[in-house]
Each structure stands twice: as structure tokens, then as C-alpha cells.
Predict the structure of UDP-arabinopyranose mutase.
Amino acid sequence: MASATPLLTDELDIVIPTIRNLDFLEMWRPFLQPYHLIIVQDGDPTKTIKVPDGFDYELYNRNDINRILGPRSSCISFKDSACRCFGYMVSKKKYIFTIDDDCFVATDPSGKPVNALEQHIKNILSPSTPFFFNTLYDPFRDGADFVRGYPFSLREGVPTAVSHGLWLNIPDYDAPTQLVKPLERNTRFVDAVLTIPKGTLFPMCGMNLAFDRDLIGPAMYFGLMGDGQPIGRYDDMWAGWCTKVITDHLGLGVKTGLPYIYHSKASNPFVNLRKEYKGIFWQEEIIPFFQSAVLPKDCTTVQACYIELSKQVKEKLSKVDPYFDKLADAMVTWIEAWDELNPNGPGAKLANGKAK
Amino acid sequence: MASATPLLTDELDIVIPTIRNLDFLEMWRPFLQPYHLIIVQDGDPTKTIKVPDGFDYELYNRNDINRILGPRSSCISFKDSACRCFGYMVSKKKYIFTIDDDCFVATDPSGKPVNALEQHIKNILSPSTPFFFNTLYDPFRDGADFVRGYPFSLREGVPTAVSHGLWLNIPDYDAPTQLVKPLERNTRFVDAVLTIPKGTLFPMCGMNLAFDRDLIGPAMYFGLMGDGQPIGRYDDMWAGWCTKVITDHLGLGVKTGLPYIYHSKASNPFVNLRKEYKGIFWQEEIIPFFQSAVLPKDCTTVQACYIELSKQVKEKLSKVDPYFDKLADAMVTWIEAWDELNPNGPGAKLANGKAK
């Protein structure tokens, strides 16, 4: 991609789960001000979130979510950043970039500020290569290509649905690792983007994430976390496992690597351990479940795949904990709500086009 | 791995397919002089290869190969760097590092010369993680770890069989890409090592490669290339496909990324095209073959896996070209020769131990 990266200002929304840090948007202003922001307030709806002048935004608190979704609002987490997925649902744009408010602008090894969004756009607008590994990483980057021995029939690649960015400074560790390595910082700037191969799951972090809403939006459900739920900090993981199984099934790609953000603040490992500890057990059964999940061929839309996955969750994970029974139901509610708010989604549009 | 990397001078051989370039060993002297070299002369046996003073080496030319292997020498390529695999067979060491004579010492972004062998040793002595992708790359490197959401049961990893290093300057492109992009140079130093996930094939390049001979040696057959063969430049690819299928089956790992070498000289793209063009067609059938190859559970040694693969090659690829029938036979000959020269291989040792 030697040409300039398009800004996509009319096609991309920024989704932020609350803003506690006033510096956050000031720091990102040079890069994010041209975009529309969707802020989903994760806590007490009576508190006001202050957005600096000059930003174009809409703000949703719990009352708004309840009003818009009615009884279906039960599928959106409360007092947890998992609520951000409501923003994916109400967006009308093709692309989403979601970022946490403790993520600041990173600098590359030359000291230049990293325009994270520009790199995400590059990642998403160029194809993925999930069927064979390219040892020089993303063959679509400037100065790179497919290496000797890469089959020519696979060089067109597939559409990229997800761009997963990384974090300098505070790494995204679980509570046990945080407790064991409180001082570890990520200082290694790895100048690479790569496709996660088909059939391989990965831990998707929601801190610095972009995706094509038209291609994969309905799979980006961040589950039931936080208030009233037995678990937290698995919202993005859940979305990542579901998303990867569905992108693999539909022939779409997931990239990881650049861009970096600077993750400024380590969350409290003791609080995290309380949120996570059930997940630490459960993931030992959840991951084999997703690794062996097979979607039938007639699931040709993300929604159909997701409903099918919800059935398999109910059938195979409910025995791990009754929570998964509730989560499977919430997955269905999420899709119902998505379809209600997006009646003219890509599938519907196509159907209308055919009917004419 | 915070402790110093062991040198393994008594456990590692350097295998080099001929040396045309007198500067080559001088440049590597600080790093390679402590090791034993095995040079396998790929061309005219009457020509002498000059090795600078101070290096401990053994040199094999075609006459030596014929003498040592007798009729089985037919499995070793002539006038092609694929002959290097003879060096793997005659080595008595646990580890092999193989490097081409147009590969010089690279410098890292700080300008420091890269000790490629030291990085290969780090890669090979630390486990691989083929079952789940770690977004911060090799979790066993200093300053890295497993990220949130990585199952704890998978954090021990598996033994690493192969460390695949990369190339700055001249990238390892096929002839068509060389022709289209004659001036492209790889200047991107990606500071990463990663495990190639289970089930994913990759184009293994033999320019800068290390492996554990005890774990995977018999799969590192570089096939029939060069003189009298219809194809060239697929020797390392063939070894890579076989190796990856077998490491996946046996629960071993393959890493790629660091270390870099500086690849000084682009080979002639016209000559390369003549060598490669059949491979460009064939790989479209070979890769799906390896992607779907399944080894039976009772194949518990590399040799057994390799013999089984040779049967599947004969059965499924001979229809692509009679060459594969010949190659399948050569695969069997290779294993016979390997076992003859290595009567006390790991399997044999175990059997002896049990018999006592």
C-alpha cells in the first residue's frame, strides 16, 4: 500500500467505554478529532462525562441503553467496559475503532507519535492471509511481499475483518502474572503485522481494536460481565473466540501486531483476580470448546453463525457453570437487538436489492 | 531466559553447502570459530574449497558421498545446495545450524552485529507454543510473557524442534517476484520470534536455519534437486512441509523470526525461473496435500512418520508428475541411509535401554 491511507472519516466510528481521564482525548485530538465518537458510559448514569470542545460525539449511559433496547438491554453489561459493544450496535458506520481511556499515544523507535488509527485502517483495507504463513509477515506492507514457496493461488488473500493492536508499557497480563511480575513493562516495539492463521485462536484484547462492522460486527458481543455477573475481564476474550471461529468459517481474516498504543495504567491485580478467577478455570474448557467448534455450511451470515454458536454454548458449556446458559441466551438477545437496530444490514440490503 | 545462553559448542554442528566466498567465514569467525563445521561441496569434486586457518571442519564432496552411502547416495542431490542434508546425516551432534555462504552478519537497529547462532540457541532451548497464539509473540523471551486469556494449561509449551531465521537486504523471493521487484530490499528489522501455530504450513528457507537433530533430523531431507532433476529451489520448502506436518503430529514446535542474517547477493532470477517454474505449478497441489495429510497414531518416531509420508506422496502426488514417484522412493532411501549412519539414534538408544 504505497498510496496515502484514506482517513475514512465518514465511514468509521470511535467507540470508547467511558472517559475517566481528561487528558485522554486531548492527547488523541490530532488523530481522533476528525471522527465521530460514541461513548458508552460504563458506570453511574447520574455522573457526567466531560468531553473537550471540538469533538463530535454521542454519549449513552445506562438509562439510554434501557430506553433504546427495552427488555433486550439485559444483554448489555453494566458497570463494566463490556458495555462498549452497545456502541458497535448503534453505530451506522462500516468500521469501528475501540480504545480504552488509559491508552495514550505511543511513540515508535524513532520517537515519532504513532497514529494508531491510520495503521488500523491500513491493516483492515489490505487483505489477510490465513491459509499459509508468510515469514516476512504482512505481505501487503510497503517493502514486503510473499516469500518463495508461497502458493500463488493464495496471494489474493481474503478480506480483513479485524485489526488487533498491541500495547507498549503495561502489558495486558492476567492477575496472576501481574502479581508475579508487577514491574514488567513491554518495551519491545515489534514492527510487524501478521494474519492469525486459520484454525488458531488468540486472546483478543479490546483496548486497541478495529474491525469491519459490516463483515463481523454482530460477532463482537462483549458478553455479560461486571455488575451481577460472576466474572469480569473476559469480555474481549469471549468476543475474540467467537469472532475467530466465525471469521475462519466465513473465510475472513484477523490481523494482529501494529499499531501500538501506550498503556498508561496497570489495573489493580487484586481486583482483577477477583474478576478473573472463575475465568481462569473456565477458559480451560472454553478454549477446547471453541477449538473444536464447527459451524454448518448453511451458516452464511455472521448472525446465523452467532446463533449457531449460542446453541453450542448452551449445549456444551452450561455444564461448566449455569452462567453459560444465561450467556447463551444473552447471545441470542444481542443478535435480536442488533437486527432490530440494523434492519438494513448488508444481508437485508442484498435481499431488498434482489426483490426489486 | 534471563541467564546467559549456553554456547553448546560440543553439541552443535554448522552445516554449509559449499563455500564460494572467502570473506564468508572471516566475517563469521567471531561467532562460528568455536564450532565444528561440516562443509558439503555442492559442485565439481575436483575443485578445492579453501577454508581459512583456525576453523575445525570436515569437508565432503560428491566422491565422499558416493563412497559413504554407496547406492543410497542417489538420494543426495548433486550440483545443488540441497546436498547439505548429507551433512545433517553424518553429524553426530544434537543440534544443527545451516547457513548459506552468501549470508553475512546482520546488524540490529542499534548497529550491533547479530550473533545469529546465539539467537537460534535461545529459540531452540526455550519451548514453543503451537496450540494458541500469544499476541506478545514468544512468551519465553526476556520482558515478555503469556498475555491475559492464554490458558494456563498450555503455558509449559512443547519442545522446539526448529528455529527459522530471516534475512535482511535481499529477501527470499521466488523468480517472478524477483523479476517484478528487482530493487526491493528487506530493511525491516522485526524484533520478534514466534511459534508457527499447529496446523499451519510455512515456507521454510534453508539459508539461516537451526534444528534439533535428535528431535526432527530425519525429516530434514532436502529432496532431489539440481543435476538430473526437473526442479530446483524447492529443497528447503520440501523439508519444511514434511517437517511441519511431522512436528505437528509429534507435538513439537517450530519458531520463526529472529535471528536475521544479511543476505548479500540476489541469485539470478532467470536461472531461478528455470529451476522453479515446475514448482510454481506443483506447489498448488503439494500444499493442499500437506495441509490435509494425517499421520496415524502409531507413527511415534520421525522415521516412521517420514516413511508414512513417503507412501502418501507416492499415492497422491505421483499423478502430478512422475518426479514424485522418484522422490517418494528417495525419501525411503534417505531414511535407510540415516538409520545406517545413525544406528544409535534416540529410538535405538531407548530400545537398547529397555532391553537391558
About this structure: Chain A has a mean pLDDT of 95. Chain A touches chain B through 57 residues (CB under 8 Å). Chain A has one domain: 12-341. Chain A has eleven helices and nine strands.
